[in-house]
Structure prediction request, 179 residues.
Amino acid sequence: MAILKIAHLGHPILRRQAMPLTPEEIRTPEVQRLVDDMIETMREHDGAGLAAPQVHEPLQVVVYEVASNPRYPEAEDIPLTVLINPVVTPATEEKAVGWEGCLSIPELRGKVPRYTTVRVEALDREGKPVAFEATGFHAVVIQHETDHLQGILFVDRMEDLRTLTHLAEYERYWAEEEA
Ligand code: NI
Prediction:
């Protein structure tokens, strides 16, 4: 396993549409290694999730996990999940605004509106179909990570760029506020 280099805002790969994988491709050692390396890279950087374009691979692969994450101390735990070729559809019209950050946009946070419940259809790391509904922070993470596969970053989803905040100032002025 290896910790991969993360692409930062401005790298063109973050703006490309990622390519889907066939179940046969998913089962290759190359893709399995990519998934393992993405998990290790996400954990190394205390990310809640990571999408393949963020590690310079234009493929429709995302991983996420939240377990006592120091970047998101208030967040509920979410088990390690691998989604390939995910299709995400809102299961409600209701949106909630919450703070988001991104390993590709270091040291910044901003307020982003997201659907509170989404339906997900995808393949798992064995290439088997999975389908489920997610709510709350889990739904936020899924929308954030799957946006990366369309070349969309959280700043594109912000309704008011004036909430863009450096992490130190977030901790000082905004962390206590109710989202
Ligand atoms: Ni991100």
